[in-house]
Specification:
The chain has 159 residues and is mainly alpha-helical. Helix content is 69%, strand content 0%. It folds into 2 domains: 85 residues, Orthogonal Bundle (Helix Hairpins), CATH 1.10.287.70; 61 residues, no CATH class.
Length: 159
């Protein structure tokens, strides 16, 4: 919406002040806003040059935001497709071996969750390790659970 507004305003202003055809005005607007700037068309009047001092930086920022938004939609769609492919694939023995981080021959829900989150690039392995380390720091009773006994043993643990 902003890009169309900028383009329309510029075409009207640039065309009126330079007497270019409207197609040339659109061409100049797009080339300038995309920071290509071939130099084949340029404003000659002082008033248009002054207006361009304000228009061009604004147009470049809006164009960059627009391109960024389009790219973000594209990347999000690609990630969603990759995620669907990953989640619909069948489980293999090599997957089980890779998931079994404690090498006990079984995959717990924690191992499965950690492996899947890292594989889907939702988190980094280091982040998982930091969360596990925090859990062990808080589990003062060492029973593998957080409960009120852990709170009683150390009421002033800082996260």
């Amino acid at each position: 919406m902003r890009f169309r507004l900028i383009n329309t305003l510029n075409v009207l202003t640039y065309r009126r002040d330079t007497h270019y055809h409207w197609k040339q005005s659109i061409y100049w607007t797009v080339v300038t806003a995309c920071t290509i700037g071939y130099g084949d068309l340029a404003p000659k009047e002082t008033s248009v040059r002054l207006a361009c001092v304000f228009f061009i930086p604004f147009a470049v920022v809006v164009t960059g935001a627009y391109v960024s938004r389009v790219a973000g939609v594209y990347v999000a769609r690609r990630n969603l497709q990759a995620e669907k492919r990953y989640l619909s694939r069948s489980l293999t023995l090599s997957n089980l071996v890779a998931m079994d981080s404690d090498k006990d021959g079984k995959v717990s829900i924690e191992e499965f969750l950690s492996f899947t989150l890292v594989a889907l690039q939702k988190v980094e392995k280091d982040e998982i390790n930091q969360i596990i380390a925090l859990f062990h720091k808080l589990d003062l009773s060492g029973n593998g659970y957080l409960n009120k006994n852990d709170m009683i043993l150390a009421p002033k643990i800082n996260l």
